[in-house]
Amino acid sequence: MWKTILRRILIMIPELIVLSILVFLMAKAMPGDPFTGSINPKSNPAEIHRLMAANGLFDPWYVQYWHWVVNLFHGNLGMSYEYQMPVVDLIKQRGMNTLWLAVFTMILTYAIGLPLGIYAGKNEGKWSDTLIRIYTYVTMSIPFFVVLVIGIWIFGYALGWFPTSGSVSPSVSGLGPTILSRLGHIILPGLLGALFGTVNIIQYLRSQVIDSKHSAFVKTEVAKGVPSKAIYRHHIFRNSVLPIAAFAGYSITGLLGGSIFTEMIFSYPGMGQLFLNAVNFRDYTVITTLVLLYGFLNLLGTLISDIVLSIVDPRIRIE
């Protein structure tokens, strides 16, 4: 297994190299530049030309790419044109905010989705199963950003229960109050994100529980007189959770990439908001770094899903 993991990690290297080249070319192909209009709408074209030349933006793309790779191996991802700070520090700052929101959303997603999926499958055809299915259908039919807007309007502005922007209140100080303030800022976006994230888990888990419940080996266990709780714990749940485990890695790394809708509507300073702002302001260094980071997280998610799947069911081994 460890050899397989090492081989998969080594395969990531050429994939990331190809991805970095493509991302670098596409970023440079975007119309506009990071300086026009960002300094002053009436800036002298000669000053803009000087800034672009000083930052090497007139060099051939392969020269710019080579300089970027050399700096990358020295731990220097360049300076953000918009924020005027090192990209490494910027991503560390925003990445920590996204990590808080991602972990909280993931915990809520599985805490809500797993029990509801098992309960719906166990009570197939009953009124409780019908209510859970209606919940999943309604959730799937409403665009996510609409729910975010309605949620922030009701619970943020009308009722005033939760903050509507930022990650930490500027007035707090100290470790304890800061943690509580950060938690208060992620409860509403995390809960709304989890309610949508549970849909796939509930549907997959419900279907798997129903299939396992009507399978031949479960009927055999029932005929032997095995208690219902033991059947569900040792047979039905173990087999039903496999599809969920297969998506676990993608879910984790996907949340770490940041949700653009959530972070923009809540003005939450995370990776998703940073990426959208970087595209708007043609912040090439940030765009290239973030897309490369997202590509790495996607590859890592694939590997994590395979590892989790092999742990859940020892009969499955990644080859």
UniProtKB/TrEMBL annotation:
GO terms classed as biological process: transmembrane transport
Keyword NADP belongs to the record: no
Membrane-spanning segments: 9-27, 99-121, 142-163, 183-205, 241-266, 286-312
Entry's localization field: Cell membrane
Alphabetical UniProt keywords: Cell membrane, Membrane, Transmembrane, Transmembrane helix, Transport
Keyword Membrane listed: yes
GO cellular component: plasma membrane
Coiled coil residues, start to end: none
Lineage: superkingdom: Bacteria
UniProt topology in membrane: Multi-pass membrane protein
Domain (ABC transmembrane type-1) ranges: 95-305
CDD domains reported for this sequence: TM_PBP2 (cd06261)
Similarity remark: Belongs to the binding-protein-dependent transport system permease family.
Protein name: ABC transporter permease
Lineage: Bacteria, Bacillati, Bacillota, Bacilli, Lactobacillales
